[in-house]
Amino acid sequence: MSQSTVSEFSQATAVTRQGDHSFTAELDAGWKVAGAVNGGYLLGVAGQALRTVNPNTPDPLVISTFYLGPSREGLVDITTRTLREGRSTASYGIELSQNGAPTISAMATMGNLGELPDDVGTTATPPQLPPPEECVGVAEASEDFKKAAPLIERFDMRLDPATAGFAVGKPSGRGVLQGWIRFVDGTDPDPLSLLTFLDSFPPVMFDLGRFNWAPTMELTAHVRALPAPGWISARLSTRNIAGGMFEEDCELWDSAGRLVAQSRQLARQPRG
Amino acid sequence: MSQSTVSEFSQATAVTRQGDHSFTAELDAGWKVAGAVNGGYLLGVAGQALRTVNPNTPDPLVISTFYLGPSREGLVDITTRTLREGRSTASYGIELSQNGAPTISAMATMGNLGELPDDVGTTATPPQLPPPEECVGVAEASEDFKKAAPLIERFDMRLDPATAGFAVGKPSGRGVLQGWIRFVDGTDPDPLSLLTFLDSFPPVMFDLGRFNWAPTMELTAHVRALPAPGWISARLSTRNIAGGMFEEDCELWDSAGRLVAQSRQLARQPRG
Fold this sequence. Notes:
Two copies of one chain form a homodimer. By secondary structure, chain A is mainly β. Chain A has one domain (about 10-115, about 130-270): Porin (Beta Barrel), CATH 2.40.160.210. Chain A has helices at about 10, 40-55, 145-150, 190-200; strands at about 15-20, 20-25, 30-35, 35, 60-65, 75-85, 90-100, 100-110, 135, 155-160, 175-185, 215-225, 230-235, 240, 245-255, 260-270. In chain A, the strands form two sheets. In chain A, strands 1, 2, 5, 6, 7, 8, 9, 10, 11, 12, 13, 14, 15 and 16 form a 14-stranded antiparallel sheet that branches. A two-stranded antiparallel ribbon of chain A has the order 3-4. The interface between A and B is large, with 49 and 49 residues.
């Protein structure tokens, strides 16, 4: 698809300004999974509002989000408040609500990724996984699965066969998922789409044979660089499953081999 | 010291209720480092206020904090707001300000760690480090250092010799620090003190030979279990130093070998 067309993601995350610190948006049913709108998509919507509040700081550097209740398709009210506006970064609070009930409360420090110094001292290494054409396409999922998770049709998502055993009833038990992701309409990644990618893969608990929905309590995302065009590779892992909760880490690497985003979430364990 | 004495930590983090959602506290000069009050200590103060708001949910499960400006010793005003109160967990926003200027904005989900299910499926492993008596006592630091960082006199803190090379001008360059921590007055750890411990060690950048102050932009902490009495061991690491910022992860393990708290912060790189 030509890049001049408005991307599916831009369209679905568009916000309408209602006042200095208030917006509305229409949550799109195409980004649902297990009956609720996906949390990563909601981060994209929040990011659009924050970008509009202050065009000098268009990029989320860090955003921390508390999920207070499930989000439904349709109208959402968004309010922002200024915590601190500096020369190169600015921090805001942002709340999403539907029918008067809060669904998301978040805080973010925004900045301009294109203006950061270009030092890179990363000791982290990118996920080792086969090229996309040798991975398992999530688009090959059953029609029933797609109906329950229309979200997966927004992406071209490929899972490393070594961590995709859950799809054929053979989870590895290691608590790791790896794969590739890009938008199905060919749009290249930008900082806001990284927020969405961080929470779009199947839950890492699938690799432990636990398939029910795992509601996110809180997710913090760092976006560290503008992503190069092309595929994003991802590594999800969990190390501490205890007390009815688990943490899930996600790293996103761009096609130039740069660690562009990191997240950690605390979620409730699936009941199954 | 007998446990019946009020601990230094309890005293220094005490809050005075001023209204349903407002408190004051006196920030104690003994918890300063590099001219400002330590961010981990401030989390303890915030935790005390949140615990007072709702005694049914005394423990922080997850708290995400944005540091908006340095905190000074003396009076701090604290306001909280309810985001969602449920049966077993409750989420709040909390703001600290001094002389009318916001210094900290945070959100937390509180719960009751003693009532969580007792499943533990951790694949993480505790830090491998010598016993405390074979580690480097931070109390052996120079008088000048102690004067600049009275904070370190609140703890009995011992660093793994393998990661304490920075103290003698030989940082390992790996971006890892390990050590032991407990309160110097003998008080055993509780969930609020874990918040403080998470941000009390020397910055992990010291192990990379970069010794200037590294201001935290945002820190998210998960507290996952009530800590057993005794020493807490800690592992701090950074993997992604880029664009003038770095992330620092900290894990705290209790004397029973349980991973009791995890944090990740995004900080600005020291200028030095």
